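Request: Have a read of the protein record below and say how the chain folds.
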Amino acid sequence: MASLTRFDHFIDGAGVPPASGEYLPSEDPFTGEVWAEVARGNAADAERAVEAASRAFESGPWPALTPSERGRLLWKLGDVITANADRLAAVEQRDNGKLAAEVVAQVRYMADYFRYYAGLADKVQSSVIPTDKKGVFAYTRYEAKGVVAIITPWNSPLTLTSWKLAPALAAGCTAVVKPSEFTSGSMVEFARLFEQAGFPKGVVNVVTGLGPEVGEALVLHPKVPHIGFTGGTAAGKKIYEMAARNLKTVTLELGGKSPNIVFDDADLDQAVKGVVSGIFAASGQSCQAGSRLLVQESIHDKFIARLLEFMRGVKLGDPRQADTQVGPIATRPQFEKIMGYIEIAQREGARCVLGGRSRPDLGAGQFVEPTILTGVRNDMRIAQEEVFGPVLAVIPFKDEADAIRIGNDTLFGLAAAVWTRDLRRAMLMTDKLKAGTVWVNNYRATSFTSPFGGYKQSGIGRESGTETIKEYLDTKCVWMSSDLDVPNPFIRR
């Protein structure tokens, strides 16, 4: 048997074995083989990493850098990412089973996130505030919060870490990253590249392991004032509750049950592609997945027929092969959860018109066929709970008001899409849908230039765009007096 790749923690610029001496297995979702072992961290490891990040924030070269100098380091990091993109993507793809072509594209695009915030690092401008007080003036300062804990899931670990880490570093923070125990390898490999870009030791640290053993220790640590988290809503609520004990700030990008709404005047062929992209790309393992398809009643049967025709012949298989379109589910527990939801939906009255089965004949059998369920009511569990897999719930609607009612009738509000040629209708829908992102005649487009986040139980705060950097900054107001004579000290000025 070939020796396993070992990933230790990365703390203070070096690989560090776990304090417990224990490691977790990392399985290839396609082959089912254990290919690596990942350090199983605990509170002692988290403490060591936070202390390293705290030292780097308080003293040494990092706090002495000007914002422009931080920007140059971030730009250099973008170049280093580009040079190592294929290697990073290969590790991540083996960890989570996503299509190799998509992972490579994601990692290459990730470099642009750091370049974008490189340019923004020295453009956070304070302001002089006109006041009603004579003899004084006031101005604002923006100061880095300190050590940021970044906790990310298994579906796109490097991308989702970058959405938090790039603005945090641009703001002047330091970081401890806790990736999912299922997909830690790529983050450890990435952390090793920071030295090549010229970052001081301790600015970026990685502690791997389980949420209750590492994540909670980071969230509760007194030297961590801010937590950035992407993951399920239940875990996000728990993190929010723990952070509230010490009034920490958070950014939470959580679950979704996003409506993909097709009107009868839409370009149906383009809408079919948008529906497929929204739910079957990445095997549906995306927080922004368009898992509820709302189709106007007048075109319901015709549209479903076109959708089924498009999906015939879709290739499932080895995600490393260029012609594979749907890969395996990333983890065994997630695979079992998806299959359970398909069964629940049919018990509640939904009809399975495509897929609905696992594929034990492919790889290690961790495959779920792209599944389309019709006859779905919006009060069914399949329409209200996040499945996080290639399962589409189809719900008919009558008119604009009905589509708005159904679209908003969920605890989530991460994303939505509208397919129509009518500009008035598009404007109405974008105004009334309660979602952080609304696409019109497209789906799944994101950029480092545009904010992303959710309404309701889909999260708190925004990632990407110019305003995100302020999530990692505290605002200080400074009052300067030019009076030579101090006014009456017993009266508030």
